[in-house]
Amino acid sequence: MDSLTHIALGAVIAEVVAGRKLGKKAMIIGAVVNSLPDIDFLGAFWLGTTRDLIFHRGITHSFLFVAVMAVVLGAIGRRIWRSAGMGPGAWIGFMGLELFTHIFIDAFNAYGTGWFEPFSHYRVSFNVLFVADPLYSLWLGLAALALVILRRNRPARRKWAWMGLVISSGYLAYALYSKWSVDLDVEQRLQTERVHVQSYFTTPTPFNSWLWYVVAADSAGYYTGYRSLFDTDDRPLDLRWRPKNVQGLKPYRDRQDVADLLRFAQGYYTIGKFEGRPVLNIVRFGEIQGWRDTAAQFVFHYFLDEPAGNQLVLQRGRWMGWSGEAWRAFLQRIEGD
Asked: Could you give the residue ranges of the DSSP H alpha helices within 193-300?
C-alpha cells in the first residue's frame, strides 16, 4: 500500500495496543515501525532499475525480517520507555504486530511480497486492492487524525481507533467479495464463450474494487479484458489476444536486467513494441486505459534497446493520457451495463 496508509494504519494499531501505556507516543512509534519494511526504498540509490524491482518488497517484507526486528525493536522500546510498564513480551508483540500488518496488507496488491525470503523468491500477490485505494485508507486516515486531536485521557480515542480498523477491514472484506464475484463471472464467461485457457487472474483497476482487469493465459500468450462488478450477465468479456512472442526475447536473453525482469514477471510477460522500440511488458500491472482502448499498451514496459532509460518503469505508463474525458470513460466503465 501507499506510505500514508501504512503511517495511518500503524498509528491506529498502536493506539489500540499501547495507547493506554504510552499515550500519544504510541502513535508515533506505531507509524514509524509499520513503515519500516519500506526502508528498502533506499536501494534505489545504489541499485539499477531491475535490481531495485527485485529488492523492493523482498527481504524487508519477509517473515524472517518481522521476527528478527520484532525482538530487536522490542528490546529497544523497553529500554527507552521503561516507565510505560510494558514487559518484554508486550513490546515484542507490539512491534511484531506493526511489522506483520505492513507485509500482510501489501500482499493484497499486485506487486508481490517476499514473505519467504531469503529461502524462497516466491512473491505473494492476492490481487485484491490497488496500491492506493481511498475507500480502504480513508477510514484509517480519519481515525489517525482524530487521535492526533483528542487528548490522551479521552475515552473516545479507542472508539475512533476501532472505528478506523473495523471499517477499513470491512472494506477489505467487501473487496474480497467483489473479487470472488468477478472471478466467478469470468469463469462462467470463459466457458460460455469457449475460451480455453490454462489459468487466469483478476486484479483491480486504479482506486477501486469494482472494475477488474482480467488476464487469461495459455501457452502462447494472453487474453486481456475488463469486468465490472455491475456488468450484466449478457455482456461479453470483450477479450483481446496478446501473443507472448518469446522468440523476440532471444537477442536479449544473456543480460542480467532481462533475467531480473523475467523473475519479477512471474511468467506473465510479452515482448512487443512501444513507440517503435522493442519492449518487455509485464502483463500483471495492467494496460494504459485498456477499458476504453482495445489496442492499449501495457503500463509496465521496459525498453530493451536502452536499459538506462527505464527510470520509474513501474508506474510511468499508469497516468499517460488521463484527462477529464478519460476519467469520465473510466467511471462509465465502472458503472457497467
From this structure: 256-265
